């Protein structure tokens, strides 16, 4: 970030700034707006939210005077206000993507179908797109990445989210010539795949978070989605469906993430996984075949080998997103993107017995949770990607609790953008 800080300062001194269009003024969006106000050479010039008052509140909390905030859905008024040095709030997400005054679009909605729509329009309008929406990325990201490459813009996940933080460790280790055995993250709570919003309601109230979001953490869907993003960026696979998810402390990881014949739990190297016991950090387990490097690592107190763990004990979510914005704008580089295509998938599994005609309620709800599979397994089983599950999807036949849903089990009553993009992606063989 030091180089980016200098470049941003120089850019500001030249009379410029990177102009960000933000979609979504929830917790992640609010954090981004406040953080950007502390950064030279960057401004969130327009924020779109279905509740405009949330965006206005976010700007005021960041120190923006109310007199400098204009609420409008008129593109011409918005352009003039931004040109005069003001900030714009709108309900119209498409307007925020289309304005000439916007250089980089950030999606902070967390809703798969909305994220797919935003990314699609951003790329068509030749805007760099930064997603705080891993659910959209793992569903249609390989196609969006290909589209962005053709359009000459950057498609990227964000720094600060766990996949982005893991990617930093992977880039660091692999660039130095280490063999990376495993990539993973800590999980904040024990896995309960049948968790529902009702079951976590009290905890959600205490923490001031959405019960569906908390349920998606507890039931493991968020973890599965995040590690699918890492898989598609690196080519690493889950060692077993759903990953191992052992309970362990940091010092046990080098031995644990070894091959079974070496006393570990792995069937292969180059895997993604999660651990109950090292949250909120992310990790990479590495090794080398060079005796001198082993000696150096032991001298540096990295452990006895032959495997060693690199660990980052924090991730700052949207507070780090400005790094991804600046990298995309100045260097045309993604923080993390599905460069390997569709390597893994997070598919929908029934949380309860599902009946014909029953509507599915999506991630963190009452009907399904996510499980990571290799893309090969997903294609073989015709398993339904969890990012396609929503209010427009109903059951065609009965599926028992704990079974994977397939395309043949459901019908989509209205094909929205994410369904259309997914169909294109599958026809393209990605």
Molecular structure report:
It comes from Planifilum fimeticola. The chain is an alpha/beta fold and 430 residues long. The protein has three domains: 2-161 and 318-331, Rossmann fold (3-Layer(aba) Sandwich); 162-314, no CATH class; 344-427, Antifreeze-like/N-acetylneuraminic acid synthase C-terminal domain (Type Iii Antifreeze Protein Isoform Hplc 12), CATH 3.90.1210.10. The protein contains 16 helices and 16 strands. It has helices at residues 2-13, 27-36, 52-61, 75-83, 93-98, 112-124, 134-151, 162-175, 201-207, 211-218, 221-234, 253-256, 291-299, 321-331, 375-381, 417-427, and strands at residues 18-23, 42-48, 69-71, 87-90, 104-107, 128-131, 155-157, 179-187, 237-238, 271-276, 282-287, 308-312, 344-350, 368-374, 393-395, 410-412. The protein has a seven-stranded parallel β-sheet, with helices on both faces. It has a five-stranded mixed β-sheet with strand order 9-10-8-11-12, covered by helices on one side. Strands 13-14 form a two-stranded antiparallel ribbon. The longest helix has 18 residues, at 134-151. The mean pLDDT is 96.
């Amino acid at each position: 970030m030091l180089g980016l800080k200098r470049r941003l300062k120089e850019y500001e001194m030249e009379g410029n700034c990177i102009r960000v269009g933000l979609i979504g003024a929830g917790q992640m969006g609010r954090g981004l707006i406040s953080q950007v106000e502390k950064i030279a050479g960057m401004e969130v010039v327009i924020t779109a939210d279905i509740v405009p008052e949330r965006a206005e509140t976010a700007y005021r909390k960041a120190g923006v005077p109310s007199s400098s905030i204009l609420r409008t859905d008129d593109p011409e008024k918005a352009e003039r206000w931004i040109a005069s040095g003001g900030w714009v709030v709108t309900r119209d997400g498409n307007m925020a993507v289309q304005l000439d005054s916007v250089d980089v679009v950030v999606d902070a909605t967390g809703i798969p179908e909305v994220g797919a729509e935003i990314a699609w329009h951003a790329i068509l309008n030749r805007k760099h797109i930064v997603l705080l929406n891993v659910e959209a990325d793992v569903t249609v990201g390989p196609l969006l990445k290909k589209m962005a490459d053709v359009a000459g813009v950057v498609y990227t996940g964000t720094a600060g989210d766990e996949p982005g933080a893991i990617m930093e460790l992977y880039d660091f280790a692999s660039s130095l010539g280490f063999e990376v055995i495993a990539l993973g993250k800590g999980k904040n709570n024990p896995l309960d795949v049948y968790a529902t919003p009702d079951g976590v309601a009290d905890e959600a109230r205490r923490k001031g978070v959405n019960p569906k979001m908390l349920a998606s953490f507890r039931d493991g869907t968020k973890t599965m989605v995040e590690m699918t993003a890492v898989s598609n960026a690196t080519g690493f696979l889950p060692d077993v469906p759903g990953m191992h998810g052992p309970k362990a402390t940091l010092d046990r990881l080098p031995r644990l993430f070894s091959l079974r014949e070496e006393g570990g739990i792995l069937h292969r190297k180059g895997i993604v996984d999660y651990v109950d016991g090292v949250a909120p950090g992310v990790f990479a387990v590495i090794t080398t075949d060079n005796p001198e490097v082993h000696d150096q690592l032991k001298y540096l107190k990295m452990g006895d080998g032959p495997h060693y763990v690199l660990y980052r004990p924090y991730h700052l979510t949207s507070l780090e997103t400005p790094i991804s914005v600046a990298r995309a704008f100045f260097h045309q580089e993604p923080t993390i993107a599905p460069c390997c295509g569709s390597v893994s998938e997070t598919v929908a599994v029934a949380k309860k017995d599902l009946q014909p005609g029953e509507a599915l309620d999506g991630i963190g709800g009452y009907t399904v949770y996510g499980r990571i599979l290799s893309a090969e397994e997903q294609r073989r089983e015709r398993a339904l990607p969890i990012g396609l599950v929503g209010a427009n999807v109903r059951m065609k036949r009965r599926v028992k609790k704990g079974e994977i849903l397939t395309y043949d089990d459901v019908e989509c009553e209205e094909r929205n953008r994410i369904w259309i993009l997914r169909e294109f992606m599958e026809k393209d063989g990605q």
